[in-house]
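quick one, 401 residues, struct below
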Amino acid sequence: MTVRKGEKMAISIQEHMAIDVCPGPIKPIKQISDYFPRFPRGLPAAVSRNNSVHSTVSQPSVTHSEAPKDEDDVDKLFGAYGAASAAPTKHEEETEAEGYESDDSTTLGTLDFSLLHDQENNALHCSINKAKVPKLWHKKGLKPMDHNGLADPYVKLHLLPGASKANKLRTKTLRNTLNPVWNETLTYYGITDEDMVRKTLRISVCDEDKFRHNEFIGETRVPLKKLKPNQTKTFNICLEKQLPIDKTEDKSLEERGRILISLKYSSQKTGLVVGIARCAHLAAMDANGYSDPYVKIYLKPDVDKKSKHKTAVKKKTLNPEFNEEFCYEIKQADLAKKTLEVTVWDYDIGKSNDFIGGVTLGINAKGERLKHWFDCLKSKDKKIERWHTLTNELPGSILSD
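---
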């Protein structure tokens, strides 16, 4: 470039950057970023020679005649750090609105379900209907978890406080959908009025993965005290992020489970008919988090040692259903001197069976156990069914045979 005598050589912004910034050690990002002003798109038509761009390195001046050229240069160099970074682009706004990391709980989807407390049968019926499409996601439903942009969702129920495995129920898995429709009813048995006051139902939606751990999508929690006996309550709730479970307050972890027993004195059979219907929320005794439960009953005192009856073994479950009946030939008047001992065991191969819990009905029992026994004695040919809480005390001197 030819420069006449007495004239200064004009240096472009690019050349200035190359001269003043590039040489020397690399400076921290904060110092370099201070050099880039947040101009609006383009500079004024004329910039005074006294105006300057603040820099820790130098302060280049711009003449009136050079303004248009420098305006384009600055616009090209600093445009990304100016108005473009100060205001989000349309693409950024759409990403933020649909972003799955948003704190807005509606981004996790909504769940439509209903709950019914069947007080007479001590049951809680949970009808899982569907996951509805939230407005924020336009045509999206649940949070996509898989690479194909879809999910394999299922719903898991958990009563809190309560032992994890014993209190969990789940729906079937629906494949490749963000708008699942289950229309499935899950039932908890052995739910007492006390449970309805102090327990909470945790409902979680998860994505099933065959090759990795199942992924959490969202959850909601419903205190059972919100329900009225024998009245269905419908919910349509936004899913939330996973909430912690306070195990220090989980007193139900000490519970051994519950058993549904029926008693009837049959005049036709001239004896006591004992029905073992089912167990619920049993304690887990095996390493896999389950048990292989069966039930034994004795009518004591048992001089001849012929009163033992056993149900079938139910594999890998904490909520077994037996529906078996056993008959003891005995006069109704003699039952006042008898005690019925019911125990639940975990079956093991090659070693002693594990005691899960037991309950004793009879003249020496208390509370609901005593009442159940007396109701049977005074009501001939009437089947009386009651839920009883198992204790960890082994009745009498029963062995785990």
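Residues 13-86 form one domain.
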